[in-house]
Amino acid sequence: MNDPSFKQEANIREAAISGEEEVERTSSGDEPLLSVENLHTQFDTDQGIIRATDGVSFEVDKGEILGIVGESGCGKSVTSLSLMGLVDSPGYIADGSVMFDGVDLTELSREELRKYRGKRMSMIFQEPSTAMNPVYNIGWQVGEPLRIHEDIKQSASRSRAVDLMRQVGIPSPEDRVDDYPHQFSGGMLQRAVISMALACEPDLLIADEPTTALDVTIQAQILDIIKELNEELDMSVIIVTHNLGVVAETCDRVAVMYAGRIVEYGTVEEIFNDPRHPYTKGLIGAVPDPTRDGQDLSPIPGTVPNLADTPDGCNFVTRCPYATEECEQVDPRLREVDDEHHSACIFDDPNDHE
Ligand SMILES: Nc1ncnc2c1ncn2[C@@H]1O[C@H](COP(=O)(O)OP(=O)(O)OP(=O)(O)O)[C@@H](O)[C@H]1O
Ligand SMILES: [Mg+2]
Predict the structure, then answer these.
(1) Which residue puts its alpha carbon closest to atom 24 of ligand 1?
(2) What one-character-per-residue DSSP string does 112-152 give?
């Protein structure tokens, strides 16, 4: 089967389940749970090499919620899939490391990776229906990671599935457990997908646009559930989104991605109160302030460059209101501009150079 969308769906299901044996926890406690270093994920295409992640580095501590934010096509999903070992041909990880609890996941075989996925790290996707198989009932699917990783029997997995479904706010789970995916609304299905991802109490949950397909009230409920579970289980979370409101409400730290790179990285307070990169400033400027009447949305003019052919200097140069001649030549790398606050701009704060 060569249909890429089929492959993607198969991968999505594999992300939610898979694996045989338990992987021992090895962390010392002081190290971040996840440490991504100089990640390069590429796609060899007819148009050339697409550098979907071009030297991405970040960390996630235990119990921390990291937001990855940026416009469409910036490499957010490819970053998530790279962490899970789910990038398929023509894509591959060309360089870099993904240290998870002391183990470099990029060095593991597909078989070894399965022991992590669904057990120690799991992923939920934008479109909940792709994560569920239409021919199996919800309870069977929610309990599947438990049967695989914890070797429990069907009857026990069904009752654990009921508990998990209750935990994510699905009403009357003892009745709904035997329903099929098509009998669930989008919001309920996303809750079921979350409960499946949480079945084995993972150390890391990666949520790629988990609420985009849902209406606003349901979005807020799903985010509340993720936050509650983060607190209750001390679970680390990566939330991928293009919605800055989601980031502001949910995250501890933020990585702003542009054209395959992280261009700003800091705490949620630093990113919102003291943004340093012109791209972040632009994104924040593009968000309407509900407390002010009649404020215009000011989207950033222009588009993300072709990732197979980025400009020589700064990737943002053609869209940047602060750009100078130097910016056309110098390719700025992420650097510390304040304590633990990083920006990939030649200026510490471009406002000081106006
Ligand atoms: N299978 C693939 N083959 C070729 N290029 C790909 C493939 N998957 C992703 N890309 C390219 O990688 C780049 C990053 O894509 P990615 O899906 O990570 O963006 P994103 O930030 O998640 O966007 P969105 O907000 O729309 O989900 C894009 O240029 C995209 O076209
Ligand atoms: Mg995406």
Answers:
(1) 72
(2) HHHTTBTTTEEEE-S-HHHHS-TTS-HHHHHTHHHHHHS--
Q: Please tell me the distance between residue 78's alpha carbon and the centre of ligand 2 in angstroms.
A: 7
* Overall pTM surpassing 0.70 (yes/no): yes
Measured from the Cα of 80, ligand 1's closest atom is 18
* pLDDT tens, residue by residue, 157-207: 999 999 999 988 899 999 999 999 999 998 899 899 999 998 998 999 999
Pairing of strands 236-241, 261-267: unpaired
Instruction: Give the tens place of pLDDT for each residue, 199-244.
Output: 998 999 999 998 877 778 878 888 888 899 899 989 999 999 988 8
Q: What is the rounded CA–CA span in Å between residue 32 and residue 83?
A: 15
Angle at 306 between CA 327 and CA 86, to 5 degrees: 115
pLDDT of residue 2: 40
Output DSSP code: residue 154. H
Three-class secondary structure of residue 171 per DSSP: coil
Nearest CA to ligand 1 atom 13: 52
- Evaluate: CB of 307 within 6 angstroms of ligand 1: yes
- Which has the closest alpha carbon to 80: 33, 122, 28, 112? 122
Ligand 1 atom at minimum distance from 53 CA: 14
In this structure, the residue with its CA closest to atom 30 of ligand 1 is: 73
Other CB atoms within a 10 A radius of the CB of residue 85 amount to 22
Q: Map out the domains of the chain with their CATH numbers.
A: 4-251 (3.40.50.300), 278-354 (no CATH)
Is the pLDDT at 6 greater than 50? The verdict is no
Helix boundaries (H) for 203-286: 216-233, 244-250, 268-273, 278-285
From ligand 1's centre to the CA of 194, what distance in Å? Answer: 23
Which of 74, 124, 279, 310 gets mutated to test ligand 1 (max ligand atoms within 8 A of its CB)? 74
Given a contact cutoff of 8 angstroms between Cβ atoms, the answer to whether 53 and 59 are in contact is no
Taking the mean position of all CA atoms in its chain, how far away is CA 59?
Answer: 13
